[in-house]
Write a sequence for this structure.
């Protein structure tokens, strides 16, 4: 572990921050004392010995005397002057040479040494611990998941075998247990049997061992972020309840958004019979019109639940202008989607999607497009040793001449999925310039590059951490949530009992949480109620489907829990 990181973390903690303030106060006091002595020095020199010195000379004299350096280049020649110099020396010894180191040691160094010596990682949770989530292998995905758990006030414990990592995680404010994930005795002490769920991003062999050990203790659901989808069966056989092949999921997310072939309204996901879809305005007769001019409700029964413009979400408004870059988010039934397709695109034209990067995610995207009968072209600088199904053009995708030669100008869709975010941003910018109407989707390897990819021109960006975190919380919390784009989710929640008997307008869900009601589902009614009118009376047999940011989703949980 990097020792400076620990020190920095230590200095940023609450108590240490208070101590820093005390130190700053003490230093200000010293500075004022030096300045006071310097003025007094000037005054005495003139009144006792008729000599003039600048303020800088006064400060210089004070500091050399206080630190007992005393160069002797400026000295008093009178008894009163000697007395003053003696007083300055004594106060220097007391305040600068004795008290300052004492303050530093007692406020910082001693607590720091004490803390690191006293740090004994916890190896056991209290016997009555229940309902916690155990997280093995803190990485970008599990950290994004932890932020979700924090937002929903679900207790979680991070497990690591490494004592130094445990110390660092604890300084970050997490509840940490130190122990070997595959050790049955340790798992018992981590109360794995009573956990609400176990989440692991360890490597697959370690995970198999962990699952087998944890299964002996109880039947808490185990969600696994798998390295390789080919291990899914093994992991399930070992006891994993949910295996999440992240590359395949990301590939599917990218593929479904890169083409509109065969389906003007593009289904992203579903809550039972309620489908959530996207409709790019590009290529439809509605470019340049407003949302209110699409006869959605009358002709298709679908409801517009939002608009996306280069990843920026806005609530639906009949006056919202539709440009070639606008994507309309829709909710409705399968029949509604078919009516829209008939309305918009009687004959789908030639579609071709370019996939830059034929790694695990690019290969998964190609497989999905293949199933949809969408023609695609793959480019990668290396051969994919695990794929024999696809033929890829070999070469560096950032070489624009190669892209041109491969025919990228004729592409309707582009999936940018190399494992290098700089290359992805570069490719997004270059492709957008070359083809303003391209449907461009990109993968962010690090969450902090999502905004840059949108700025470079991507229509849709996904990062593995947000997709993974969404999947994990769906599984463990038995709540449904669909990620539409980074920062916008559609989620399903049971109707809060206290709203029963109220109308949607009276419930003030929008005003309190910022979420909007997309649809109402009822178990006994197969047809979803899409875009329910504000005077709909609520009852407890209903489930809400809402749209909002993760923050608004959290607010809904808090307001109606
Ligand atoms: P994966 O993370 O498994 O999806 O793999 C990412 C893929 O991107 C690998 O197969 C890399 O060879 C590929 N890749 C990375 N940079 C480039 C590039 N500049 N041009 C083409 N392919 C790339
Ligand atoms: Zn492949």
């Amino acid at each position: 572990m990097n020792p400076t990181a620990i020190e920095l973390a230590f200095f940023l903690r609450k108590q240490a921050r208070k101590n820093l303030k005390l130190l700053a106060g003490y230093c200000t006091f010293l500075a004022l004392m030096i300045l006071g002595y310097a003025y007094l020095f000037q005054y005495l020199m003139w009144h006792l010995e008729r000599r003039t010195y600048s303020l800088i000379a006064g400060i210089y004299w004070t500091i050399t005397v206080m630190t007992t350096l005393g160069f002797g280049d400026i000295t008093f020649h009178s008894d009163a002057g000697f007395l003053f110099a003696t007083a300055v020396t004594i106060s220097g010894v007391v305040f600068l040479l004795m008290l300052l180191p004492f303050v530093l040691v007692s406020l910082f160094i001693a607590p720091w040494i004490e803390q690191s010596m006293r740090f004994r990682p916890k190896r056991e949770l209290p016997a009555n611990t229940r309902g916690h989530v155990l997280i093995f292998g803190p990485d970008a995905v599990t950290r994004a998941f932890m932020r979700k758990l924090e937002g929903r006030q679900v207790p979680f414990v991070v497990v690591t075998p490494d004592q130094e990592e445990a110390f660092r995680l604890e300084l970050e404010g997490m509840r940490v247990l130190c122990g070997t994930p595959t050790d049955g005795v340790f798992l018992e002490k981590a109360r794995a049997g009573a956990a609400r769920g176990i989440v692991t991003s360890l490597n697959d062999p370690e995970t198999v061992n962990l699952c087998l050990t944890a299964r002996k203790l109880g039947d808490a659901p185990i969600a696994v972020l798998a390295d390789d989808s080919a291990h899914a069966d093994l992991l399930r056989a070992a006891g994993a309840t949910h295996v999440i092949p992240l590359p395949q999921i990301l590939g599917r997310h990218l593929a479904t958004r890169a083409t509109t072939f065969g389906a003007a309204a593009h289904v992203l996901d579903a809550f039972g019979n309620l489908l959530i879809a996207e409709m790019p305005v590009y290529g439809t007769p509605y470019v340049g019109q407003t949302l209110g001019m699409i006869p959605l409700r009358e002709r298709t029964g679908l409801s517009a639940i939002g608009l996306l413009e280069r990843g920026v979400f806005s609530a639906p408004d009949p006056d919202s202008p539709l440009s070639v870059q606008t994507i309309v988010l829709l909710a409705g039934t399968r029949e509604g989607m078919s009516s829209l397709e008939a309305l918009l695109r009687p004959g789908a034209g030639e579609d071709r999607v370019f996939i830059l990067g034929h790694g695990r995610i690019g290969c998964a995207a190609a497989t999905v497009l293949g199933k949809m009968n969408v023609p695609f072209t793959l480019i990668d600088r290396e051969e994919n040793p695990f794929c024999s199904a696809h033929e890829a053009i070999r070469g560096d995708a950032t070489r624009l001449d190669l892209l041109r030669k491969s025919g990228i100008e004729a592409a309707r869709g582009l999936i940018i999925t190399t494992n290098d975010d700089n290359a992805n941003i570069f490719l997004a910018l270059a492709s957008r310039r070359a083809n303003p109407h391209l449907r461009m989707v990109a993968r962010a390897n690090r969450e902090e590059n999502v905004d840059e990819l949108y700025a470079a021109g991507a229509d849709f960006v996904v990062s593995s951490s947000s997709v993974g975190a969404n999947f994990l919380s769906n599984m463990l919390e038995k709540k449904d949530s669909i990620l539409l784009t980074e920062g916008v989710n559609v989620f399903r929640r049971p109707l809060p009992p206290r709203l029963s008997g109220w109308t949607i307008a009276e419930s003030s869900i929008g005003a309190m949480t910022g979420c909007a009601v997309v649809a109402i589902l009822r178990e006994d009614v197969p047809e979803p109620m899409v875009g329910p009118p504000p005077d709909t009376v609520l009852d407890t047999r209903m489930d809400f489907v809402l749209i909002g940011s993760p923050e608004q989703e959290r607010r809904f949980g808090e307001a109606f829990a």
